[in-house]
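In practice, a research group might receive sequence data for several interacting partners and want a quick structural hypothesis before committing to experiments. The following worked case mirrors that situation: the sequences arrive first, and a predicted assembly follows.
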Amino acid sequence: MARIDLDHIRHSYLPTPTSPSDYALKEVNLTFEDGGAYALLGSSGCGKTTLLNIISGLLTPSEGELLFDGKPVTELSTEARNIAQVFQFPVVYDTMSVYDNLAFPLRNRGVPAAEVDQKVNEILRIIDLESKAKRKAQGLTADEKQKISLGRGLVRSDTNAILFDEPLTVIDPHMKWVLRSQLKHLHKQFGFTMVYVTHDQTEALTFADKVVVMYGGEVVQIGTPDELFRKPQHTFVGYFIGSPGMNILPCEVDGTMARVGGHSVPLPCGLDPKKQAQKTEVGIRPEFVKLGGAGEGLPLKVNAVEDIGRYRILRGEMEGVALNAIVGEGMSIPESPTALFDPTQTNLYADSWLVSEGA
Amino acid sequence: MEKTVNNKAWFMVLPVLLLVAFTAVIPLMTVVNYAFQDSFGNNQFFWVGIEWFQELLSSERFHDALVRNLIFSFSILAIEISLGIGIALCMPKKGWGVPVCLVLMALPLLVPWNVVGTIWQVFGRADIGLLGYFLNSLGINYNYTQDPVAAWATVIVMDVWHWTSLVVLLCYAGLVSIPEAYYQAARIDGASRWAVFRYIQLPKMHSVLLIAVLLRFMDSFMIYTEPFVVTGGGPGNSTTFLSIDLVKMAIGQFDLGPAAAMSLVYFLIILLFSWVFYTAMNNIGTEKKHYAGEE
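A structural hypothesis for the assembly, expressed as tokens:
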């Protein structure tokens, strides 16, 4: 187990990158604390897997340095880094038995047979495959195969970190939940440093203590699930997290008021007059949009109302910009509704980045 | 799923049935017919029962040719399969080298059989052939027309040159179908190069190797043109394989009855060996039976 530092890491898949767009991973400075459970969250192609492969040593970064507990490991091979990694699609050694599959990483490292047996049996119990230990891995279901892959990642007790690359993609929803809780449990029990790559926000938010949100090869925010929800640092985080995502409305800023269309919205803070912004936007989560009667707030055109059980999602628009609101049970939707924003939960974005108080 | 029963469907397969009947079944029946009769020309046939088969199976000439055929097939299988796997492993997986290698590999496969024979016949000659001249100038007495060992070496090397490419291409197809994640997982698991081969590459090549072994066995067991062109079955009878013998009997001596009987036995031997290979290799790969109870 180790603390992992990424120091000015950049990576390009091209041999001679020139412009910033040639980089799959723009400059990343990041620290994964020893024993932390992290999620790397982002849409496909944002560089999550690249970052993971750099940590495990399957890729050597074009620039920058990687440190485990302060020691540089950038040049070390995957084996020497002592990292476990679980991939998106199950990797099992077809001709080996389930037991041998799990024992494989240990045997390759010359672990004594008695210890191998004890560890493998423990993992078999955790992944609930004890009854199939002796059979060949070939012909198992995708679920079972991925459990073996997970098991091979967990079987070594001395790993510096365990990396998961969307490991539950092929698992069916019920099992997903079970396996995720088991991972969480294992994390508490053994204190591995875990980094979990996913594009599923629920997975990220339930698994991790800290979520690293990536967008276009950059880390846009690192924070607890609550921080990501309340104070998204970047409009992408706002969109990406939450269902539906944050409402982002273009605006003009006038002191601590935002002008959206022809209407005023109070802001928690103003814009730093020294900083020039190309575009300014207000962001508010649908959870904090209240509905009012005519004349009370921003006029809202209702496109659809989705009843999803405990609450309803009002899909609307305001002067051509999508604006959603969550309407609680028992609340009525007025004839010609308007949207009222909770000023404490309204965020101001300048060039897509959050303008924080006092800045 | 319920099977739909519709007798009209038979009309759909009728053309194929007719085609197969004319190209395979009827000629085969002719052979079966000949195998139990004797002829004296003028289209006169006499029923002889299983006499030809008895004669064939106790004939030393047949035994010798069969043994030669088996030695030949197993030698070239051993060489071509291991060499084929080796070359496929060395071939690049991406970049400009891939098309270059593939074209180079495919070249021998494009050469017609008799041309391959002619190439090697000339290539091996001591007076004008590059190989023959070179070997003899090294002091090795190499003359495939007089020395059985040299004749065998030539025929085997020729076949390896001609057909290893097929095994290479099949193995390569198997290798490139392995997802990158397997190699990555193996590196994470600290697997040695040998373990990667043994537990990832070999299992993934299993099905293509089965095809390679079957194709190469059948083809090599029926080999005719190349040795016929190079050695003509000689020196003596040292490279007279079953097919060469069969042609001698049927066309040279016009012994239609014995030749037909030999054709049938020949056919059954190939069928038997192919079945054995198929079953054996399938069992190595899966060992499903052992676990059937758990399914």
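Before designing any experiment, note the following. The mean pLDDT of chain B is 85. Chain B touches chain A at residues 179, 181-182, 184-185, 187-192, 195, 199-200, 202-203, 285-288, 291, 294 (CB under 8 Å).
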